[in-house]
Design brief:
Helices cover about 0% and strands about 60% of the residues. It is mostly beta strands. It starts with a strand and ends with a strand.
């Protein structure tokens, strides 16, 4: 299974960007996806999560500036981030919660991570 994140780059303070992440290489279904970020010297933190059932959560640090949306049929999640600040600079990672019906009738639940995309907010 592979998660390909894209959309990062250099953005000026106050600007916006849209990150995308798509799951490939698996027949498993997506039940939820999320975005996390890790700044230098800091722990990885949750930014926003989305579930197929419609549950959405945002970190306080991006609440009001971020919008997450997902498409389970396309195994894709997006993150729109507005009013960017220098403190938003980090590597952004996506993840996916997957579920697959095995031949023996059991359900296999797993979580996969993407490789990350750099977001730099600077003038």
């Amino acid at each position: 299974v592979q998660l390909q994140a894209s959309g990062g780059g250099l953005v000026q303070p106050g600007g916006s960007l849209r990150l995308s992440c798509v799951v490939s290489g698996t027949s498993a279904s997506v039940t939820g996806m999320g975005w996390y970020r890790q700044a230098p010297g800091k722990q990885r933190e949750m930014i926003a999560t989305w579930t197929k059932s419609g549950s959405i959560n945002y970190a306080d640090s991006v609440k009001g500036r971020a919008t997450i949306s997902g498409d389970s049929s396309r195994k894709t999640v997006y993150l729109q981030l507005n009013s960017l600040r220098p403190e938003d600079t980090a590597v952004y990672y996506c993840n996916a919660d997957l579920i697959k019906l095995l031949e023996d009738g059991n359900l296999q639940v797993s979580k996969a991570w993407g490789q990350g995309t750099q977001v730099t907010v600077s003038s």
